[in-house]
Amino acid sequence: MSRNGKLSDNELHADPGIEIHAHAGRKVRTERETRTVFEKGAPGRRAFVCPELDVPARDGLLSERFRRAEPPRLPELSEPEIVRHYVNLSKRNFDLDSGFYPLGSCTMKHNPRLHERVAALPGHARLHPLQDPARAQGALELMWNLERALSEIAGLPHVSLQPSAGSHGELAGVLLTRAYHEDRGERRTKVLTPDTAHGTNPATVTMAGLEVVKVGTNADGGVDLDDLRAKADEATACLMLTNPNTLGIFDANIEEIARIVHGVGATLYYDGANLNAVMGVTRPGDMGFDIVHFNLHKTFTQPHGGGGPGSGPIAVSDRIEPYLMVPRVVRADDGTFDLDTDRPKTIGRLRGFQGNYGTFVRSYAYIRSLGAEGLKDASQVAVLNANYLLARLRALGVADRLPLAYGKLCMHEFVLSGAPMKRELQIKTLDLAKRLLDYGFHPPTVYFPLLVDEALLVEPTETETRETLDAFAEAVAEILREAESDPEIARNAPYSTPVRRLDEAAAAKRPVIRQPV
Amino acid sequence: MSRYTAVTPADLEAMLAEIGVGSLDELFAAQVPEGVRLGRELDLPAGLPEQDVYAHLRELAERNVSVEDELSFLGGGMYDHYVPALIDMLSERSEFLTPYTPYQPEISQGGLQVMFEYQTAICELTALPVSNASVYEGPSAVAAAGYLAKLANGRPRFVVSAGLHPHSRETLRTMAHGYGAELVEVPLRDGVTDPGAWARAMDDRTGAVFFQNPNFYGAVEDAETLAAAAQDAIVVGSYDAITLGVLKPPGECGVDVAVGEGQPLGNRLDFGGPSFGWFAATEPYLRRMPGRIAGETRDVDGRRGFVLTLQTREQHIRREKATSNICTAQALNALGGVVYLTWLGRQGIVELGELLLQRTAYARDALCALDGVEPWHTQPVIREFAVRLDAPAERVVERCREQGVNPGLPIEDDGLLVAITERRTRADIDRLVEVVGAAVAAERGAVVRA
Predict the structure, then answer these.
(1) Is the predicted ipTM greater than 0.95, yes or no?
(2) Inter-residue contact A429 to A422 (CB < 8 Å)
(3) Domains in chain A, please, with CATH?
(4) What digits encode the pLDDT tens for the residues B235-252?
(5) Do residue A308 and residue B304 have CB atoms under 8 angstroms apart?
């Protein structure tokens, strides 16, 4: 609430952390200053009870030289205090289970609770990663089955589940491309990335020791073929492409793009962030891609956890396979599974153990729940929902102020430009996003992709109802109407959230990144 | 329609009419060129009802031997520490489980404050002033530290102790090949990094040095000596955070960047992941850190709040000049980490460390009192140690398993790496000693008879 609702100072509670507001004419207590766990509790309090020392105590096991002198200043709280602290913190989060989350490029689809139940089974959750493969046959079979399913979905024969997130899969892909060219005695240094690419693409290229070359976008929102032809040459290692791209546009020239890239001996990399648009409809392998990464935390509904865990498996063509990371899951003729590290041309490892197995369990459960028909249905409805939402926004007159940036239809997401809104109503895309918070919606992705002025990237996903899409469209229309009469409302939003707009510049200028203890 | 979508035939008709197309096929045909359309159904098994999926996943789980099914002393990077129930409860809450990365801070204060508290806990544990909000896991955190060094001083050579976990060394090698650094490995002497060889390995092309503490063989390294010998190279220490209640923290030993596998801190084994990697550093490296960092600030009404900060380091802003390509990290697992450290508390982490120290010493002495078992090294150990067997390790392990005991990880041909967590009691350790003793004796007998 704004300060307007506040009572006079003498009505404040004695605790400076608490303030009393008038709410609907009644006093209510709210916590004014959130306190961290390091500011709670008291010396000597505890939750942990240490198991008793049941072996003869010995002195001098660790010399003073190697010993910690003072205990680390960790919090001291009872278990009930800990639970209350974190449950109360959780209530200061918006989440997918509570409301619509059309965050473009992130595929915030429903997270079935079955997946949490099966992932928690002791045979999965309490399996040690260095258990003898002969005694982890269920896990290896699950990984094998998931690899085969992802292979079929991507249209590429070989899969490694190892990468931990999409960007990790990208790094794997670029390192594999490099290894492939090096093995052929070629030193190729350039990686082409469209100007619509996710930021992870260029960042990955640099990490892999290669050079980014940007490719332009044509009037239809696809790759500018002339620019691609001009830049693709013998020094090109790879083109990294998202298709549909971050504009929600399926590139109509994909076959020609593949011809150009393969024509100069380069590989074609598919950023799978937008795979949710095309399952069972078209496959990256059939479009000519050599390497694909999947985001299990997007397309295959691993819960995002407020910033992870994710998982970024990759699928590759025959010519890339020799370089895949180790270990590989292999199946013997007798149907038993093993982990194979004997791959002479492998690029090596990208992390410890076998990857984020817990995410494999969830995504495998999802694929088995939906099957071929259900996965295709998911993609079809994702595209249907996006186009329906776009059509509703048009019907409500929103498109005048927030026009579709490219094309007429879209795949699973679409990009609106807030430039006319900013010009005519004096509210920015950021203001619209913040005002949506007061309507109980998570805003779309804002200011991405970069080539669209005041961009708003909307991805509703297939798991939302028509009523929710209608309500969101109405909210956007209402915010624009409101701005016509008073743009200050949006500019000062939000009003209903645990905190209001935060000073990010001050946070970056004088960083306070830990609690002084 | 699948079970997670909601479009009825009536909805479909109305929605297509609103869009202005006749069918779903038309919607796709207008956008996806015919030449790349699949034209058949995916060759995957048909979908299953929830109860059938559960039964299938349970059947797969039952074909794994978990740490509940045997008396396990497996370690080597992940450990069967007790995970308190409140972590399950909190990590399953929708509000923590289902949001995305907190791009809208006003409605993400819970997650952002958890990150801030997590960073504080890591800083306190390591005695270093700066922590990020998590990276993927241990070995890739080591490699990420290498990339930080590469960006910071650009030197092409890394000196690496042979005591660094093999997966960390392999991951570092893979990534260093990408960004153009070579690895020079320094061997161990009596279980720890050979100080003479380590000092001799340094030169003016050395950008960073890497060691692990306690190292892969369980031995406590002399971190101060190793760090001092590194001259002006960046000192990277990979630490086991659960030992830091008793072990001198990296920030007091001259370590510039400390990283580690977070699994021992309240995370499940999960056959290797997801867990989290932690990443802490000295102040000069703040703006070179990979990944998300939460920072404290105020809102327009003066209320305390938290935001993702120093984002100009990151890929979505800086693109090809970013300090890392990381986007999604391990926020939910890091939540488990900070809740675990809060649950242990200031005294608990020391008590737990002392218990591990005592039980591990007891186990090591008891095993090494057996005929045919010797210490791999004589260095101090905290939660894990290696022994040398006068018998093939794989065969000994095989025999022990037949008795329901998984005695540890076979290393090289005749070594065994044994982990002792607080879940392994004296009775469990006595059982281990009995079973290993019998197995070694049987194997030696088998050799004599042959």
Answers:
(1) yes
(2) yes
(3) 1-45+82-92 (no CATH), 114-369 (3.40.640.10), 373-504 (3.90.1150.10)
(4) 999 999 999 999 999 999
(5) no
